[in-house]
Write a structure and sequence with these properties.
The protein is an alpha/beta fold. It is 48% helix and 14% strand.
């Protein structure tokens, strides 16, 4: 009975660990694909349990052999992200120094650096979580009312009253879902670091199609500009950030005649070339990329080729753009990492400051698991880029 239980655990461990390397063919399984690499330290422990039990109850049965095979394979898979951590940290640090300057950290105050995460990866945080700090939160502030639809923002601020460098956030959700409440832990974390964080809403497809979403972002800009004092926003120190579809909108808003002074852009796995994405969708394609794009833009690329080009951030690259941080997971099956590289190359060709960090083991939406391995890396370098862009003398 004990060996049977161990075999069951070993089988479950192998099934979960497989998602570290196996792309998800459908959206239901996609959650496992996102989560498995991020909780791999937990999987290592889980996979050790049946192995230890079976060794303690050693016998010559086929049960024992099967447990050894399952647990051995599971352990190999679950270790994959861990063994890549050191190289990734070296590469990311070198990229930051190469693009921002070898002494870029020296431009950030020691006091601020001491508040940041001390390491790109802290194993204990995977198990205990990243600790919360108290901040002021105001939710549901109405900033626009297009078509009699109230658009709201959330405001996260440090406890002391002040005038803070600010981060404007746009959520992910394939342009059709999501809210400013998404990624609440990130917003609170950044507010505790000394920023006014403004998470904004926008109208969703397919009811509202592009460029309505971009208009909503610019309405939020106008509201922030007109109410900067009440929001405790320093209008001279603003960074724009988005995830996936939110990163797409953030990038367009930062580069297409912004009505606010943008000092930096942070793009987490955002779509870059919608025409190419429609014509060569990823395989497997768990979200049905073409259907998503048709809902967003109103038709196929053949029907609306000009609209697809107009909605593609890569077509807005020019010189003198704000410094840009691009974070793309290399195993992304929704917005492939090649798009991040294309955008990065074009930014550099136009003499812009750009940093590209490709997380070797990560999948799209990796940061949904706030204390996961990938988000720890992303958080570590994001807060340093943000401090360099908004709080240094660069």
């Amino acid at each position: 009975m004990v060996l049977l239980f161990s075999l069951l655990l070993a089988g479950i461990g192998l099934l979960l660990s497989c998602w570290i390397v196996v792309p998800a063919p459908i959206f239901f399984l996609y959650r496992f694909r996102v989560g498995a690499p991020e909780v791999s330290p937990w999987l290592i422990i889980f996979n050790l349990i049946p192995l230890i039990i079976s060794i303690l109850r050693f016998n010559q049965s086929w049960w024992f052999s099967l447990i050894l095979i399952f647990s051995g394979l599971s352990l190999i898979l679950s270790i994959i992200p861990i063994i890549q951590i050191q190289d990734a940290e070296l590469q990311f640090t070198a990229e930051m120094e190469a693009k921002l300057g070898k002494d870029y950290l020296n431009k950030i105050s020691k006091e601020l650096q001491e508040k940041m995460r001390p390491n790109a990866f802290i194993l204990s945080d995977v198990f205990r979580g990243i600790s919360d700090k108290e901040v002021r939160i105001n939710r549901g502030i109405i900033f626009a009312n297009p078509d009699n639809m109230e658009l709201k923002l959330n405001l996260y601020r440090p406890l002391p009253i002040g005038n803070y460098p600010s981060l404007i956030l746009l959520y992910r959700g394939a342009w059709k879902e999501g809210s400013p409440d998404d990624d609440d832990k990130f917003s609170c974390y950044m507010a505790a670091q000394g920023y006014s964080v403004i998470a904004i809403d926008y109208r969703h497809a397919p009811k509202y199609r592009f460029p309505k979403q971009l208009e909503d972002v610019k309405s939020a800009f106008n509201y922030i500009q007109n109410n900067a004092k009440d929001l405790e926003v320093d209008l001279h120190r603003i960074c724009l950030m988005g995830r996936s579809s939110g990163a797409h909108l953030a990038t367009l808003a930062a580069w297409d005649q912004p009505t606010i002074n943008i000092k930096g852009l942070i793009n987490y796995y955002g779509p870059v070339d919608l025409l190419q994405a429609y014509e060569t969708p990823p395989f497997p394609d768990p979200i049905n990329t073409r259907a998503i794009l048709q809902d967003f833009l109103g038709g196929s690329s053949e029907e609306l080729v000009d609209m697809y080009k107009k909605a593609s951030p890569i077509n807005y690259v020019k010189s003198n753009l704000p410094p840009t941080l691009l974070i793309y997971p290399r195993q992304d099956t929704i917005v492939e990492a090649k798009y991040g590289r294309q955008l990065y190359d074009k930014l550099l060709e136009n003499q812009n400051t750009a940093v590209l960090l490709e997380i070797p083991w990560g999948e799209h939406a990796f940061d949904a698991i706030f204390s996961g391995i990938s988000n720890q890396f992303a958080l570590y370098y994001t807060e340093r880029f943000l401090a360099w862009a908004l709080r240094s003398d660069n």
